[in-house]
Amino acid sequence: xxxxxxxxxxxxxxxxxxxLLIIFVFFYWPSAQALYWAFTxxxxxxxxxxxxxxxxxxxTLSDPYYWSSVQVSIVYALATTALAMVxxxxxxxxxxxxxxxxxxxxxxxxxxxxxxxxxxGLAFRFVFNPNAGILSYLNVVMxxxxxxxxxAWQSVFTIVIAGAWKxxxxxxxxxxxxxxSIPRSLIEAAAIDGARPLRRMFDxxxxxxxxxxFFLLVINITDSFTDSFGIVDTLTGGxxxxxxxxxxxxxxxxxxxxxxxxxxxxxxxxxxxxxxALTFVQFRYVEKRVHYT
Amino acid sequence: MIERTPILNISTHVILAVGLLxxxxxxxxxxxxxxxxxxxxxxxxxxxxxxxxxWANLTAAWELSDFGPKFINTLxxxxxxxxxxxxxxxxxxxxxxxxNYRGRMLxxxxxxITLMLPLEVRIVPTYAVAANAxxxxxxxxxxxxxxxxxxxxxxxxxSLEWNLLNSYTGLILPLVATATxxxxxxxxxxxxxxxxxxxxxxxxxxxxxxxWDTLIPLSKTNIAALATIMFVYAWNQYLWPxxxxxxxxxxxxxxxxxxxxxxxxxxxxxxxxxxHYAMAGTLAVMLPPIIIVIFMQRWFVRxxxxxxx
Lengths: 293, 309
Prior knowledge:
Chain A has about 290 residues and is an all-alpha fold. Helices cover about 75% and strands about 0% of the residues of chain A.
């Protein structure tokens, strides 16, 4: 702990003030507002609000569209996370062998992180389009076989692939960093003991990656729940027939297109609780990890 | 370490090459589509080799989406967010680390909890706040009765109003609060030895002089790391500008323009989808952050790993 401090003065408070003000106005106030709206029935901007208790939640939770949205969000979160992490880990483990050209691989696998979600969505919309995309030959063989704009599961499939593709770079960066922080002496000791590269991978490197795997698992799932708007909006627009109406997208469309503020607020609160639970799990883990090191 | 593992080495190269192909393939397809004309991109099977229409498509997409001013807007917002985030992170962490006062932990937690409130989950009420950024204070004044008091005493009706919709401030301000940046800076400041603080105090330097003359030069790598990830973050913002900016002609950002390039029934009116323009626009929009990440790779990776752990 530090022992030399500056004397407390207005300076300390003045330096804190800007960030705290912004957080209050743009984070805490809107969150409180969401809570308030979730328990009241409010006319958009002005007009009276009446306290309705848990009515909005009851309405939301009894809406079959909401449950199908939750369902597809869970499918999306788990599928993108699994795909992206398996892919990222495999690539990281092999890039970490540092054969010729590994630096080029590293750059080539990192830059997709920089691509905006809507750009990913739009690119994949073309890649998977039924008329001239990569799977369009299926329609030549048998018309109507591939059409994500009409067939629900194919639409879900395209957002999963796009989402996973977008997440690979992020996980890859973390896996590679974790692999490179494993002391070389450990690897060399194993090699001297006669462990061949593959055995070292499975018995040494992968177990040492467990904390990173867990960290990325939580981060990727949280991201898939909250950060999927851009991909869905340009790739499927929530369709066909709400098949890809993820929770975030539904909040947006109910709130801004349907002007159902109370319903959107109730959904926001549910999603907020979900994110809090996930962050809590992650934080618990971060604290635990301190004991390892 | 010298080991002869020829078979494994070959498989390593094969696995990496396949992985790389899978990652690059969609972007390659998009790029190739941007180099062909309307009929070619709309005929199955998909083109795999570039044509000669890249420049024509780029200029067409550029005109169509009015990218010129949009790129300038996006640059202004991205730079604004970067400067805002780095400054806020730095001064907040400085106050938390180098002053000893009660409530520091409380402030730390207040900032930490914002991690659990991503924009997406509070989007509707945040939009309402952006319509009048002073509304929280108005409500507080009304509820506590201060408005009433002032009105009866002086006859002045307090009505605070600050509309952030359709302005650079509205695009930038809600995005500059940064828990991760504050943590990154806090971690760094905690490594500054006490002796440095004592030496500064002995030389008669106040806290602000110490911050400016000693800490900021020392934190250059921190700034580079934070600035790189935040630039990418700000450039790629989509949902917030989509809502806050209705006056796209003056304040539109490039990423939002992509939603207009989506060739669906709305934009083509049932005609042949203009994929070649859409893909050219996509390429133009994704390029600047990619260049930043490739050139700033070291700082970028460091920033990403340090802020999220």
